Protein: Glycosyl hydrolase family protein
Amino acid sequence: MSTVQPSTAGAAPRRRRHLLIAALGACAALGASALAATDAGADPAPPEAAQEWNLTWSDEFDGAAGSQPSTDDWQYDLGHGYPGGPDNWGTGEIAAHTDDPSNIAFDGEGHLSITALRDEAGAWTSARIETARTDFRPGEGGALRVEGRLQLPQVTGDAALGYWPAFWALGSPYRGNYQNWPGVGEFDFLENVNGLDWAFGTLHCGTAPGGPCNENNGLAGETYCGGSCHDGFHTYAFEWDESGETAQLRWYVDDEQYHSISEADLPADTWAQLADHAGYFILLNLAIGGAFPDGVSGTVTPTAATEPGHSMLVDFVRVYNR
Structure:
């Protein structure tokens, strides 16, 4: 079994979880109480009590087939890492990210498609984008909700080994620094690996390795997405609520909450470091290989059996405040 090597502070957003094999056993126990899935053909309504929420930013990905997200709204991350940042994005993933329409483009049916490809020499490519805005956070005494409706790559079994789709956010001080993770905070709204039928929501914070946030694993919850995360589209949402005496973080799939963390669960200085800055930027990417899928599969991924050409589809990303 491959072992995830510990990172030093600032070295590796989303480098983790050699302990996830144990988590899979816990995840299997959730089957009896699996969450209800969203109808794959329906566009779900905004959050409950929608009159209290204001839509403050969104992308519906409604462009013509073959066109791409606007560079006014999104930045394309290219290659194998940020300039001056950790190699392989700090995760060990192997695909080079591109802005080629073969890797990232609208499908003409209202979705953004991010596709992992392998060339004849065995080299993988995929794509990763992040919002130009870095100020997503709740207002004073308010709440933030980020939600996205996504379909995971429709591939399972050996053919899926190494697939690692993600919808997540990083603290704004990371942009241009690349050495201050995990202290500045990371919210993983959705992660899935190797085509397995669960999704993770995670907070990364504090120091690494170890620290108050159990790095490099983070503080994670998991869900079965109503029985299968691969049966069409599901809505993944995250709320950061500052309206009470103690701030709360909450994770949802199809409007069913499955994970929460309170400000009171963390040391005051850890919470201040992740919360007391300008905000967060949102990312969408489809990685191939790396510490997370390797640690879960017990082998180096991708393998010869991994099948290229599968896509993560994104119907929308919406940000609400109240």
Observations:
- Residues 1-12, 14-46 have pLDDT under 50 and may be disordered.
- The radius of gyration is 18 Å.
- The first strand starts at residue 54 and ends at 59.
- Residues 20-61+129-321 form a domain with the Jelly Rolls fold (CATH 2.60.120.200).
